[in-house]
Structure formats: structure tokens, C-alpha cells
């Protein structure tokens, strides 16, 4: 009996020693995790943003959105998309297509056999960017002689000679169609506007300006679109307009998972696409940066507020 008790007591001591060792190992790893967390917090406080993700290729989905396939599965074709990406890369070797977003001010020069000098240059703010592959396009807007003018360009149109970013920035909304009903000063830009080059490494600024709309009638029902870049919508609404807006709200759509899934491209497909074109795009960006260093850096002008 004493022998059995002694063996059980030795077994208990062995288990207790193993548990203590595991606890010490766990406690010894805690400072390393804390140091990593502190390092991330220091990086956030120093730069004002979180460090980049481990996969830098996924950052290209914002800079080159046209390389991703159409979010609608009914319009996808893997062979056509692969051939289009090859054509897009060849086109980018002939012309520098810079990084820009909706809200950036661009100057586009195209070949025009009927214009003086055989070229035509248009300056305006980008109010829309859409399309995938070779069908990617963007729209510029400017007010010329008190008349709103909009020009839609295909991003990979062979008649485009140069695309110059005069002011690189974003806006609060993904589309700026409401500038058609806004006051003209929000869409007026000089034709001889000087480019504003941001220092290398700075984040793309977001212009928080909120435009003022002209009195109704409007081209669209802007009060139903939850716009962040418009300040005086409520001033032009009547009580019946507010009632109709409440009746036509669709808050249940944000819980429709299948609708959200159909509007996205899976990460696996993105990794396969960027793995195909990442190296060539990276080389083009590096060559563009080398030429940009030779330009004179000017301080950005005060934004319209």
C-alpha cells in the first residue's frame, strides 16, 4: 500500500513540475508579444497610420483597379482577361499612366487631326472612374466660359498622348456626379494650372470640401444617395421629399451577404492576377519615380473650402 502511495506521489510531483515548466515558458514569451504590440503602437503614433500589410501586391488593387476582373461573375472570362492584361502592360510601356483617383485634377492630351497643332488638351476634375480591363474609362469635368464641359476618355485609348496629374487627391464620395448641379466654382479649373507634386512617401490627401448645390430641379435625387460631399441638401427639400426618402430606404441590403459577395473579387483571384503583373508594374513605378525626382516640388495650393 505504501509503495502504491509513493508511486502516485512521485507521479503527482512529475505532473506538477511539467505544469510549472509550461507556465514559465508561457510567461517568458509574454514580453516578446508585448514588445511587438508596443512596436506597432509606436509605428502608428509616429506615422499616423498602421504599417502596410505583409502582401504589398494587394495595395495595387487601389492604384490599378482596372487589372481586376469584373465583379459580376456573368461578365468574366479568364482567357480574355489574361490577353487584356498583356495588352494593358504593353500599352503602359508606351505611355505613362499615373496614379489618380476620383477627385484628382488631370490634364489629358489626345491626338486630334482637326485641332490646331493636331493635339487637344483638356483639364478637369475626375468625377468618375469605372470599367475593367481595356474597357476602363474615366470622366473629366470643367467649366469653360460658364458652360459645364465633360469629356469621357478610355484609359487605354491609343489616341491619348499624355495623362498628367495636376493635383493628386481623393474626395469624400466615390462618384462626383453631383458637381453637375453644384455651383460652378467647384468645377472650374484654369487651363494653365501648374502641377502640384507631393513629396515622395506621403499618403494621398483626402479633400474634405463639401459643395453647395444649386436650387432644384436636379438631374438626380441626391437626397436619397447618402452623399458626404454635399452640405446643403436639406435646405432645398420639402416635407414630402423627406417622407419619400424615408419610405424608399433599403437598410436591409447591408445584411444581404450574397449581394456583397457578387460585388467583390475573391482574394485568391487577386493574388493570382497580381502575381502575374506585379513585377512589371513595379518596374514601371520605379522608373516613373526616378523621372519624378528630377521635377521641381511645389507646395500644394490651398484647397477650396
From TrEMBL:
GO terms, molecular function: structural constituent of ribosome
The family this protein is said to belong to:
Belongs to the bacterial ribosomal protein bL19 family.
| Top-rank taxon, per record | Eukaryota
Name of a matching Pfam family: Ribosomal_L19
Chief localisation class:
mitochondrion
Q: Name one GO cellular component term.
A: mitochondrial large ribosomal subunit
Keywords assigned by UniProt, alphabetized: Mitochondrion, Ribonucleoprotein, Ribosomal protein, Transit peptide
Native species: Pieris brassicae
Localization per Swiss-Prot or TrEMBL: Mitochondrion
GO BP term (any one) = translation
InterPro entries registered for this protein in UniProt: Ribosomal_bL19, Ribosomal_bL19_sf, Translation_prot_SH3-like_sf
Protein name per UniProt: Large ribosomal subunit protein bL19m
Q: Using the record, list the residue span of the signal peptide; answer none if the entry has no such feature.
A: none
Amino acid at each position: 500500500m505504501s509503495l502504491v502511495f509513493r508511486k502516485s506521489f512521485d507521479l503527482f510531483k512529475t505532473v506538477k513540475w511539467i505544469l510549472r515548466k509550461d507556465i514559465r515558458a508561457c510567461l517568458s514569451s509574454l514580453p516578446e508579444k508585448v514588445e511587438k504590440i508596443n512596436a506597432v503602437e509606436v509605428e502608428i503614433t509616429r506615422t499616423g497610420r498602421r504599417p502596410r500589410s505583409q502582401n504589398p501586391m494587394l495595395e495595387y488593387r487601389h492604384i490599378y483597379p482596372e487589372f481586376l476582373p469584373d465583379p459580376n461573375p456573368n461578365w468574366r472570362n479568364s482567357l480574355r482577361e489574361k490577353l487584356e492584361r498583356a495588352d494593358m502592360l504593353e500599352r503602359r510601356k508606351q505611355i505613362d499612366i499615373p496614379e489618380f483617383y476620383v477627385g484628382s485634377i488631370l490634364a489629358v492630351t489626345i491626338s486630334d487631326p482637326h485641332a490646331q497643332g493636331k493635339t487637344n488638351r483638356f483639364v478637369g476634375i475626375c468625377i468618375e472612374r469605372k470599367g475593367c480591363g481595356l474597357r476602363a474609362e474615366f470622366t473629366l469635368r470643367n467649366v469653360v466660359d460658364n458652360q459645364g464641359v465633360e469629356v469621357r476618355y478610355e484609359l487605354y485609348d491609343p489616341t491619348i498622348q499624355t495623362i498628367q496629374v495636376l493635383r493628386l487627391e481623393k474626395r469624400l464620395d466615390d462618384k462626383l456626379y453631383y458637381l453637375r448641379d453644384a455651383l460652378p466654382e467647384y468645377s472650374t479649373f484654369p487651363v494653365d494650372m501648374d502641377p502640384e507634386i507631393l513629396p515622395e512617401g506621403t499618403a494621398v490627401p483626402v479633400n474634405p470640401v463639401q459643395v453647395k448645390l444649386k436650387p432644384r430641379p436636379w438631374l438626380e435625387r441626391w437626397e436619397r444617395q447618402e452623399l458626404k460631399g454635399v452640405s446643403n441638401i436639406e435646405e432645398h427639400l420639402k416635407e414630402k421629399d423627406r417622407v419619400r426618402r424615408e419610405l424608399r430606404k433599403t437598410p436591409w441590403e447591408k445584411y444581404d451577404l450574397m449581394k456583397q459577395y457578387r460585388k467583390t473579387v475573391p482574394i485568391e483571384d487577386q493574388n493570382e492576377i497580381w502575381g502575374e503583373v506585379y513585377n512589371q508594374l513595379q518596374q514601371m513605378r520605379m522608373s516613373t519615380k526616378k523621372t519624378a525626382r528630377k521635377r521641381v516640388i511645389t507646395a500644394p495650393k490651398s484647397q477650396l473650402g
